[in-house]
Amino acid sequence: MTETASAKPEETPKISPSTQASVAAEQMDMPASKLMRFGPDNPLRLDEGTEIAPWQIAYETYGELNADKTNAILVCHALTGDQYAASENPVTGKPGWWSVMVGPGRPVDTDKYFVICANVLGGCLGTTGPASTNPETNEVYGLDLPVVTIGDMVRSQAKLVEALGIDTLFAVVGGSMGGMQVLQWASAYPDKVFAAVPIATGPRHSSQNIAFHEVGRQAVMADPDWCHGQYAKYGKRPTKGLSVARMAAHITYMSDESLHSKFGRNLQDRSAITFGFDADFQIESYLRHQGMTFVDRFDANSYLYVTRAMDYFDLAAAHGGKLANAFLHTKTRFCVMSFTTDWLFPTSESKDVVRALNAAGANVSFVEIESSRGHDAFLLDEAELLKTMRGFLTGASRARGIPAPGDGNEPQR
Amino acid sequence: MTKDDLRNVRGDHRILCDFVTPGARVLDIGCGKGELLELLIKTRNVDGRGFDTSQKGVNEAVARGLSVVQGDADNDLSAYPDDAFDYAILSHTLQATMDPKQVLEQLLRIGKKVVVSFPNFGHWRNRIQLLTKGRMPVTDYLPYQWYDTPNIHFCTIRDFVELSEEVHARVIKAEALDAKGRRIAFNAPWWVWNLIGDQAVFLLERKN
C-alpha cells in the first residue's frame, strides 16, 4: 500500500534512494525495531507442510501493557506495509503508515492500549522472508523459502503474542491483507481475539485480484536482473520489473474518481503533448515515481511471496466451502468496514463476511464508508473510518472492562 | 436510566422494553440510529444487535458502540440461523417492508419471540379523513403524503391479528396506545382497539 496518495510526487526522502536500498538490505536480518527470535527448538509450522527454524519476527510496540494483560491490540499490516505503524520507518524516514489511526489520543489509542505491529512472514523488514539469510546455507533464502500463506503469517504472530506473555488480544485490526489476517486470527484463534476489525478486505482473493498480482509477478520475473530469484547472489536487483509491478498495483488502490480529480488528463511540466513516450501526463509521472520509490524499500522476491499469500487466501474453502463455519460459536465482536469506491475489495466482499458472521450467530457491526479514494481510503484521514474505529473500540473496551479511548482524560487532538 | 429519562422515551419503545426479559439476546430490525437498542441495553441489560437499511443511521449507531449492520429486512434476514435471538423486534418498520408477511415469517424463525409495533391505519381519525375528505390520511403519526411515504404496506390492528394467524403465530400479549403514546389501560375487543388505538405493540411466538 502507499503511505500517501498525494497528487504531487512525495517530498524528497530524508535518505537518498541508493542509501535507502542498502538500509533496507540491512534491515532484513537485523531490523531497527524489536525482534523475537525462535530457535531450532521452536519451529514454525507452515501450511505447505514443512517447518522453518530458526526463524524471527520483527515488531514494534506502542503504549503499555496493563497488569492483567487485557489491553493488547495487534495491528496487521497490508501487502507492503511494515511494523512501523505509528513510528518513523528507518528505511524511508517517513512517519508510521497508520499514524492517523494509531497513537496517543488516536482511535487506536496508545494512551489506553498496548499496540503490537509485526512485519509479516515473507516480508522484508526483519521477519523471516526470502531476503533473510538461510541459516543452512548462510546465503539469502531467495526462492528456497517455502511459499507462505496468510495462515502462516497469523501463526507466526500468535507465537510472538504468546512469547510476549499475552493470552488474549483485546483486538486484532487491519486493512486489506491486514484484514485477511484479522479474519484468519478470528477463525483460527477465536478464544484469543476479543474484538476484530477487518477493513477493506474479503474472505478470499478474487479472480480479478489474483490476475493483477500475476501481472505484477510476471513483471518482476521478466526482468533479466531477477536472475531466477537469485539476484542477491549476482549483486543485482530487478528494479525495473518490481517498479512496473508496483505501478500496476497502485492503480488498483485508487478509484477512477480519485485519479480523475487528482490528475485528469493534466500534462506534466509541459504545455502540449510531445508525440513521444515520455511521461506527458501527470498520472504517468506519478505512477513512475511510485514505482521508483517502491523498489528502494521493498525486496522483489518478498513481493512475490506476499502477493502469493493473498492469492491463496480462501477462508470458506478451508472450512468445507461454507464461510459461516469459519466462525461457528465465536464470541469475538466484529466490526467490518468497507469503502464505496474500493473496487479491489468492494463492499460485496465485506457483506459476504457479515452474512457469514450473522449466520454463525456472531456479534457483528458493519459500516460502509462513503469515500472517493478507493481502496487506499483505509490508510487515510477518513473521518468516518476514525469515528467508527473509536466508537467500536470504546464499546468493546467497556465490555472488556478496560479504559476506552472515549473515556475522557486524553487530550483532544 | 431514571424515570425522567424514560419520560422522553417513545410510547411504543417503553412498552417494547416491558415485553423483553432482562439479559435477553435481541435483534432490532429497522433500528435507525439505535435509540431503542440503547434503551434496551440500559434498562434491560440485553445483548442487543441492530439492523437497518440506512447506512448513515448504522454508521452513527456503530460509532456509539452499538452492534449494528446495514441490510434490509426483505433480503438479509435469511442469513440468520433459526432461534438466533430470544427476541426479534420490528418497531414501526413492518409497514415499510416490501413483503411484510415474509418478513414476519423470518422474524418468527430467527426469534424465539417476536415483538412488533406499528401504526394502526384503522384508527378513527384515519377513517374519518378518508370518509369526509376522500383523501389518504395525514396525521402526526403518519405525516407523509401518499406519494412520498416509506410506509408502503399499511395495516390495521385487525389486519395484523389476521396476519399473525396466517403465519401460525400466537399472540402472547398486545397493547394499544393512544395518540400520546400512552397505553390504553383497559381490555376491549379487537374492534374497539382498532378504532381508538393510534398504534399497537404485539408480542408473538411460533405456534408449535
Strand order of the largest sheet of chain B: 3-2-1-4-5-7-6
Question: What is the CATH T-level topology of chain B?
Answer: Rossmann fold
CATH class identity of chain B: Alpha Beta
Give me the count of strands of chain A: 14
Biggest interface, chains and residue tallies: A-B, 27 and 20 residues
Q: Largest beta sheet of chain A: what is the strand line-up?
A: 1-4-8-5-11-12-13-14
The helix/strand order of chain B is: HHEHEHEHEHEHHEHE
Largest sheet of chain A: 8 strands, mixed
Model regions low in confidence, pLDDT < 50 over at least 5 residues of chain A: 1-13, 409-413
Q: What portion of residues of chain B is helical?
A: 25-40%
The dominant shape of chain B is: globular
The assigned structural class of chain A equals alpha/beta
Oligomer: heterodimer
Q: On the 0-100 scale, what is the average pLDDT of chain A?
A: 93
Helix-strand category of chain B: alpha/beta
- DSSP E strands of chain B, number: 7
Number of helices of chain A: 10
Q: Name the CATH superfamily classification of chain B.
A: Vaccinia Virus protein VP39
